[in-house]
Structure formats: C-alpha cells, structure tokens
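Researcher: I've been going back and forth with a colleague about how 5-dehydro-2-deoxygluconokinase might be arranged in three dimensions. Neither of us has a model we trust, so I'd like an independent prediction. The organism is Mycobacteroides franklinii, in case that matters for your notes. Sequence below.
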Amino acid sequence: MPDTDGLIVCGETLVDVLPAGVGLWRSVPGGGPYNTAITAAKLGTRTALLTQVSRDAFGRQCVETLARAGVDESLVMHQDVPTTLAVADIDERGVAQYQFYWQGTANDVVPQSFPDPVRPPAAIWAGSIASVLWPAREALRAWIAEHYPDTPLTFDVNVRPTLIADRQTYAERIAPWLSIAEVARASTDDLAFLYPGTSIEGAVEGWFGDYPRIDIALITCGQAGSLAFRRGDSSPLRLPAHEVTVIDTVGAGDTYTGTFLDGFYQRRLDLPEALRRAAVASALTCTRPGAQPPDAAELANELRRTAS
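Model: Here is an independent structure prediction for 5-dehydro-2-deoxygluconokinase. You can compare it with whatever you and your colleague have in mind.
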C-alpha cells in the first residue's frame, strides 16, 4: 500500500438555523460530515469533503466557509436545488434538537456521477444522515470500496429520529456501513434509540460479534465523558469529560470525531492520547454558539493549560 496522508470525509452539508435571541435566528453552515471535515482541516490535516452543495446563497456560504478552513473542495458536487436546513431547538442544558427540511434539497438528489478520486488518504469518514437518506448512499459505498479498498473507514452513526423514526429501518440502513468500518462511533442517545433496553457494553458486544472488521467502538456519553472499546480488550478505556461552561453542544460530537481522526490516523498518536485531544477539542466547541471547532493553536494551548 502506498504512503497515505490526510482524510476524506463523506456526507451531507446543510445549514443550521440557530436561535439568536427573542424572535431572532442566524444561519450557520453545518452537518455532521461538514463539521468533521472542518475540524480536521483546522487542526492541520489535509482533508477533502465529498458532499452535495446547493448553488444558492446558503450553499455559497457553505463553500466559502470550507475554503476559509482549508478543506479541499475537489470532491464537492454542486446542485441546482435549495440548501438543506436544520432548525435547532436548544434546551436549558445547551443540547440541540433539530427539525430538518430535507426533501427536494441538495441532499435529496442523485448526482450524475461521483467525482474523480483524490490520492489515497490515511482514513475515510462516513456517516450521519447521508449514510441512511442519500438516494445515492449505496453508490457512495461502492465508490469508496472501488477506489479505497485498503483505507480504514470510520463510521459515525449520528441518529436523527426526526428523519427516520423507525428504528428497524435505521438499523438496516447502517448495517452495511458497520460491516466495512474499522472504527464505529455513536453517542449514548444513538444507542438508546437503536437498541432500547440494551446496555452500552451489550450494544458494543453486538457490534463486535456482527461486524468482524470493527476494531474500535467510540461511545460519547455527554457530561460523563466517553468510552473506547477495543476488540479483544477486557474493559473499555474511560475518558472523563473536559470541564467547561457549556453554551451549546452543536458540533461537539463532530469535533470529537474530527479531532480523533486527526490524532489517531494523521499524527499516529496512541489511542488514549488521541481520545484525550478529542475530548478537549469537543469541550472547547461547547463554549461558543454553533459548531466552531478549535484550530491547532487553540487546542494546543488548552492541552498545555490542563497539563500544568
């Protein structure tokens, strides 16, 4: 296998519509894949985003934000339909719930073709809404398998029950992705929706039993931190949450995953250190409104501060 470098992130781009005061709203480019790609790029990893973006004003805003973050746009597919919107309702704990406007938008069309591949990356990320709702989700999986058969895949479950309420349908649609993943990530809320009444340990054991390619399962637990299960280990690695004053949690999980990918696959850090960086970066995102992941200097400063 040739030397590899960087990341490819695959999935939806949309615009988050966030409350900004009484009767006021603001639009922020987002989506799990979009935020993950921006996180990794801001940390210094060469990152390409395979996504579908509208040519409307919101879409142009999304592309401009990608460019400022240093994300490679060569895999962006442009569409002549409106931008997908996600209207956020943020509770008193800063946790967001979303209402999506998906049908007839840039994420609800079949592209004429997928872009020509870029050079082999160190890792590929896929998941979130695109993995279960893109009309071309099977074609995306085939594109990855054809061009990057030896590249490790991280699959991020990121359940959105407001789009697919039936858990059986959800489970069936994520299964093909889990079958090709080396790393699987989910939140405790994701697991509770998919596997009601099953413990975290039970759900992860099920993954390891059903999907032999999964080597690592990452479970984010909100204020309780995160857990990392590695195939063959007798107990998980437990990471405490990095304590901050939370403004909201928009983009926190995406920042966690993007930082993990940057650390584990690009910087070749060991698993505990890659996860510690991910927890700190995720916490920093929670200190400001919307998905605003830290850059490399900000993360390094916070890591030094916590180590002293």
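Researcher: What would you highlight for our discussion?
Model: I'd start with this: The mean pLDDT is 93. After that, consider the following. Residues 7-303 form a domain with the UDP-N-acetylmuramoyl-L-alanine:D-glutamate ligase fold (CATH 3.40.1190.20).
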